[in-house]
Amino acid sequence: MMNLPDIKTKSKPDLEVVLAEPRGFCAGVVRAIQIVEKALERWGPPVYVRHEIVHNQHVVNSLMAKGAIFVEELEECPDDRPVIFSAHGVPKSVIAEAKGREMLFVDATCPLVSKVHSESNWHIRSNRQIVMIGHRDHPETIGTIGQVPEGEIFLIEEKEEVDRIKPRDAKKLAYVTQTTLSHDDTIEIVERLKEKFPDIVGPKTDDICYATTNRQEAVKAMIPLVEALIVVGAPNSSNSKRLVETGWNAGCTSAQLVQGAGDIDWKKLESVSRIGLTAGASSPEVLVMEVLDALRERFNVSLQTVTTAKETTVFSLPRNLGDDLPRPGHIN
Questions:
Q1: What CATH number has the domain spanning 14-25+210-307?
Q2: Of 140, 161, 191, 290, which is the active-site residue?
Q3: Which of 36, 199, 220, 326 has the most Cβ atoms closer than 10 angstroms to its Cβ?
């Protein structure tokens, strides 16, 4: 989308928009979208995708227009068409079902989520039970819990839930986290876990996605400069919702999550002269520009950018995605 130069008129109030950098797509989301697009190029439509490839309706609609069919369960997919597993990851039982049906499937799980899966399996092999810090019913959490035998993971969302954990052996316990959580909130839970279970084992490096953390840090940096915050993201996007919470926790009393310009609550922007604008890791830049254009229709907009990190991470695509049509089975 081409942006026209900002033209100031006396009929519009002035508005300074502070853009967060980084914002929008992370490397895992870019990889997942590319996998669907490459699969459509390689095998032609339709290609089935189990669950939304990423949590953004604009992205889903765009891929549907190209021939992707989104389903919630593998049973909705025919045996003779490729199926892609979303960036959030899936339980081992889904992989086993696909192999049992001799399906051609591509796993688009974000490599950072796969890291948590590997950690979880290593802890089980080491005879440890696991505490997972995450949101109930989120597909990433479901996928991680589904990596290990039933009953071997305690799922908690709040610090207060730590006291309910009753492990077989308090000295054989580990923790992992959902990748899209708030870093600040997770620290409090981890500190409580270590206080109650001094021998608990954690990841060598933080499980929380670098992109999630970077976007939260950018919001923290911009909040002292603005009076309101707009986060572009889907209502079912965990990392987008965490950005709104980050704004609130940093002192912004007017923070809203919008999927696009049509969702903006303009009443929250009355008498506001400076706003922050950012986007969740699954939100395309075109939606940010759409919001910016909507602001320009009502205000004399001037822009500045707050940059807290430069992201250069790129994740490679599955090895066999561009090769000759493989036999039914897992492409990784």
A1: 3.40.1010.20
A2: 140
A3: 36
